[in-house]
Amino acid sequence: MFIFTLLIFLLFISPLLWMIISSIKPEQNIFKDMNSLKAFIVINPTLKNYLSALSRVAILRYIGNSLLYIAIITIMGLIINSLCGYALAKLRVPGRKYIIIIIISLIIIPFESIILPLYLIINAFGWANRLPALFMPFIANCFNIYLFRQFFLGIPDELEEAAGIDGASVLQTFITIILPISKTVFATVFILTFVTHWGDFMWPLIVASDDSIRTIQVGLQFFFTDPPILYGDIMAGLTFSTIPLAVIFLIFQKYYVEGISTSGIKG
Amino acid sequence: MSSRRPGYSLGREKEKVLLGIIFILPAIMLLFAFLILPIFLAFDYSFFSYNILMPHKKEFIGLSNYTDILKDRTFWNAMKNTFYFVILIVPYQSALALFLALLINRKTKATSIFRIGFFSPVITSIVVISILWTFLYSKEGLINNFLGFIGIPPQAFLTSEDQAMNAIIFMSGWQMSGYFMMVFLAGLKEIPAMLYEASSIDGANKIQQLRHVTLPGLVHVIKFVILMTTIQAFKLFQQPFIMTGGGPNGSTETVVQLIYKEGFQYRNAGYSSAIAIIFFVLIIVISIIMQKFLEENESSTF
Amino acid sequence: MKKIMKHLVMLLMVTAFIVNAVGCGAEQPSNDNTKETTEENKNVVLKVWLPSHSDSENKALKEIFEEFNTSTEGRVKAEYEFIPRGNTFAYEDKVSAAVTSNSLPDVLMMDGPNISNYAYSGIIQSMDEYLSDEELSDFVDSVINQGTYEGKFYALAPSESSVALFYNKKIIDAAGIKPPTKLENAWTWEEFLEAVKKVHKDGEVYGLNIHPDYGTGEWMTYMPTPFVWSNNGSIISEDGLKADGYINSPEAVEAMKVFQEACKYANWQATPIELEEGRAAFTISGTWIIPNWENNYPDLEWGVTFYPYGKTPTSPSGDWSWGVSAQSSHAKEAAEFITFITNTKNVVKFCQAAGKPPARKSSFEIMSEWDEYPRSVLKQQVLSTARPRPKTPAYPVVTQEFASAAVDIVLGADVQERLNQAAEKIDENIRRNYK
């Protein structure tokens, strides 16, 4: 069983591995090694690609910019979407059934089809080329609302009723009973939201051309389109841009381990 | 679902209504400003001939965009491709995600390493993934080498009209399964440990536990994942955009790609919005049906 | 929960720290003084957008812009933004979005074929008033041709581009092939195909290498169109509003069949460096490959010859050009800025950094390296065989549909059938949008 899991693991991790390994290879070797397992072996590791990448594009600053706006989206989003999800799962919202259908329907909207009108709205707010343009449209997120709702549905009503009988208000119940047993869900939403927005390209390019708020994905484009196009630099830049995601994941995945023992609902 | 029980005070009921409204208000306001309003605007555009470089020449043309779309072969082709993608990827990706989650839902040291490994394609740049898979799929690539080993002649994959979409499906499912694996894992953690304890006292084996404890406990999550995978699959854009550009011969062009192409590249916001509206209405209908179907089976599944 | 909150707070703090501390990261091809606004009203501020180019080009351009700002101190100031191009049409998308909200800059750079499209849409204004005939006569014909729409001149390019047949000299020499270095001896299609077939060795060396981009960018239009033109065909009517009978004409079909035949000896899923590694003999590539080879593959022995032709030698042309936005209220100063950055001296400076052929004849005279082989081949093309891409308001549709068709043709589609299909799509789109 372990060997089997390991094999699947290798299958999944190979692109990440290839990216990291290629980032410390001399430029000429990256594609030369491509048609064999040599692609995953480094003979002469070098940091040249990293130095070159860092000197060409302000990667660290762009990562900082991305972290900032995505942190705002995720943190504000956790609060707003979890409240909404809870209300739709457990509270008495007039027309709840219809709101849920509308929210699910809104998940469907391909972002590409509303870019133009959204751009006009952002402009009307006077946010063009300013930070709010990057986060305001994405704080409320139908996917996350629905995800929270589905999870809160799974919590037995008896739990809240018991709290209610003990005299706790609805708000108190949410904070003292529901939140502590929903850590995993919050961590999941945090990770997934972060990952989703880390890849944003089209929107930041259109609304945030100013260098002071340029995001990492937009910054990385310099490596792809500004000659010389060096794959070593590309891999180094991409590896850099993956580090924050890996860190976030490593921090928050703890809540998956704790899960069984602490969040189990014990009668 | 929450149900009215005797013994509940009227005050608490009122509080539930009041807080319910307060809780949903911020989200609803933001959604209105940045999602619903743009949709209304797009709906408005769909009745115009609107070249985005010539806003002053915007002209009302009634339903012309809609009637044109119904005659547009490119649109129907994109529809066909999109549905094909959805039908195949939903069971494949959801099952893979569940499988991965069950595989590592244990407390061992290696679990967290495996978890990040399975999730890694999600956080790895799509560019890296598409470079690598383009090589894997190439004539001299690893997959064809393997096929040759078991006696199958080399396949064209991405450059063949018949295979390109399948190749993209295979890759996308592999790439995105980690995403919903996390959702499944979160769901697995919500299943009370005592249920497992109880069932093992009853002498249930692993497979019986899976059937009688795990799957019923995951019912909300499974529904969620199936619905979300479906919706996300309808929005397929990036993978074919980067790996095949919609080709060969339009065989991997999706509706969202078409919306982007018509709206931005061809600058025809009216036509593009009309496609988006048709597509939007269609998927709403599908998801309502799915939602109904899933809710109805709520009690009987598993 | 507390733990989560603690992590969140930590994350925010780390973020804020990085943003502040690393604020002065690497040198960037962008300008920090875009925020400064004028204190006095008489100081005209010109907003300038341009796509980010190569590192050395960005540096040269910045120096030129600063020189302009110094020379017009207290009167005109250019505030420039280098914008990433993205891997497809992201820069164009940004321009489009700016049009809808009236936020175009005063001066913008646009890819050659977009000039007529932008002029038709009325988002750029004619520069006739500000440019003398004498000034214009120094530019190569293809640039004048490309910058003109319905009798008016709109945009100036500092540099030209060209595509030619490059080769790995070792392989070609070993096969005893001598590609021509004089235009009058340029290869015809037959000679070209013969050479490609001769050097092609199945599984070892590909006769030809083409950089595939799956038809999502401009390349698959820019690169193969000379096949059609050199057969005296075209891909769209003179007025730019009809494709049927042009893109699928017998001339175009014959030309694209030759292209298809040549591509049978190419690896579609090529690695970017097949020729450099000696696994491909010829490549159809652009001028930009020269500085790349000189810097990154100093040991590579390479040569270049003319774009092979059917009836009339033809090569593609067109590069990023400078124009004045119709929304600008400082057209005079904008034109002054453009005239400055495209003067003989600055064109030389830019083209030396870019490794591109200049668009001015007087600049060619200063840059003697273009008189020597291998660059002389490209200079001859720029001066004698260059042809800009078609002028049509529907250019975005034409190029996308032609490029997709070209990709499918490479992959083996029936040429006539596929081009008929492209004609139908283009004409349908023109009917909807431009009539």
Indicate the CATH class of the largest domain in chain C: Alpha Beta
The backbone outline of chain B, from C-alpha atoms, is flat
* Oligomer type: heterotrimer
Q: Give the percentage of residues in beta strands of chain B.
A: under 5%
**Anisotropy-based shape of chain C:** globular
Structural class of chain B: mainly alpha
Overall pLDDT of chain C, averaged? 87
Mean pLDDT of chain B: 84
End-to-end distance of chain C: 61 Å
Q: At the third CATH level, what is the topology name of chain B?
A: MetI-like fold
State the low-pLDDT regions of chain B, or none. 1-7, 298-302
- The CATH class name of chain B reads Mainly Alpha
Q: Helix amount of chain C, in percent?
A: 40-55%
- In the predicted model, the low-confidence regions of chain C spanning at least 5 consecutive residues are 15-40
CATH fold category name of the largest domain in chain C: D-Maltodextrin-Binding Protein, domain 2
Coarse structural class of chain C: alpha/beta
Can I get a quick summary?
Chain A is an all-alpha fold and 267 residues long. Helices cover 72% and strands 0% of the residues of chain A. Chain A has helices at 2-23, 27-32, 48-56, 59-90, 96-108, 115-124, 131-135, 142-153, 157-165, 170-178, 183-198, 202-207, 216-225, 231-252, 254-263.
Write up this protein.
The complex is a heterotrimer of chains A (267), B (302) and C (435). By secondary structure, chain A is mainly α. Chain A has helices spanning 2-23, 27-32, 48-56, 59-90, 96-108, 115-124, 131-135, 142-153, 157-165, 170-178, 183-198, 202-207, 216-225, 231-252, 254-263. In chain A, helix 4 (59-90) packs across helix 8 (142-153) and helix 4 runs parallel beside helix 14. Chain A starts with a helix and ends with a helix. Mean pLDDT of chain A is 84; it is low at 259-267. By secondary structure, chain B is an all-alpha fold. Helix content of chain B is 73%, strand content 1%. Chain B contains 13 helices and two strands. Chain B has helices at 10-45, 64-71, 73-103, 109-123, 126-137, 142-149, 164-190, 193-201, 206-217, 219-234, 238-243, 255-265, 269-296; strands at 48-49, 59-60. The longest helix of chain B is centred in the N-terminal third of the chain and has 36 residues, at 10-45. Residues 1-7 and 298-302 of chain B have low confidence and may be disordered. By secondary structure, chain C is of the alpha/beta class. Chain C folds into two domains: 44-156 and 320-355, D-Maltodextrin-Binding Protein, domain 2; 163-315 and 390-433, D-Maltodextrin-Binding Protein, domain 2, CATH 3.40.190.10. In chain C, helix 2 (55-71) packs antiparallel against helix 14 (344-354) and helix 17 (395-410) runs antiparallel to helix 18 (415-433). The longest helix of chain C is centred in the first third of the chain and has 20 residues, at 2-21. Chain C is globular. Residues 15-40 of chain C have low confidence and may be disordered. Classes of the chains: A mainly alpha (267), B mainly alpha (302), C alpha/beta (435). Chains in contact: A-B, A-C, B-C. At the A-B interface, helix 1, helix 4, helix 5, helix 6 and helix 8 of A face helix 1, helix 4, helix 5, helix 7 and helix 10 of B.
